[in-house]
Write a structure and sequence with these properties.
The structure is a single chain. By secondary structure, the protein is mostly helical. The protein has one domain: Winged helix-like DNA-binding domain superfamily/Winged helix DNA-binding domain (Arc Repressor Mutant, subunit A, Orthogonal Bundle). The chain contains six helices and three strands; from the N terminus they run ααβααββαα. It has helices spanning about 15-20, 25-35, 40-45, 55-65, 85-90, 95-110; strands at about 40, 70-75, 80-85. A three-stranded antiparallel sheet has the order 1-3-2. The longest helix is centred in the last third of the chain and has 20 residues, at about 95-110. The protein is globular, with a radius of gyration of 17 Å.
Length: about 120
């Protein structure tokens, strides 16, 4: 069965599509960890200790359905399953690198700004 790549409803704004496909608390982090290596589920769990098994499995399934992640099952006992970025998923690497750079710059800016107090 061929996976159908989904977009945000209406497909009006490309940014909405990006957020729909890779948005969420864990998807960008999962993708970032798969940039340089293929990993097993347990390796991803160790790298992202805050994510629950349920959420990790759900996000990996969604990323696989979006054709961003490839899941390879090896016929061993017990079965060995590995996750990697697909060729299509690799097209996100420059986007993720730009996000990483922007985040680093923003962290530096935020740490140099005085804390503003909220009046109320």
């Amino acid at each position: 069965m061929e996976a159908r790549i989904q977009t945000a409803s209406g497909g009006q704004c490309p940014i909405e599509t990006v957020i729909y496909v890779i948005g969420g608390k864990w998807k960008p982090t999962i993708l970032w960890h798969l940039v340089d290596s293929t990993m097993r589920f347990s390796e991803l769990e160790r790298r992202i200790p805050e994510v629950t098994q349920k959420m990790l499995a759900q996000h990996l399934r969604e990323l696989e359905n979006q054709s961003l992640v490839t899941r390879t099952i090896y016929p061993t006992v017990p079965p060995k399953v590995e996750y990697s970025l697909s060729e299509y998923g690799r097209t996100l690497v420059p986007v993720m690198q730009a996000m990483c750079n922007w985040g680093r710059d923003h962290q530096q800016l935020a740490s140099s700004m005085p804390v503003q107090q909220v009046q109320g």
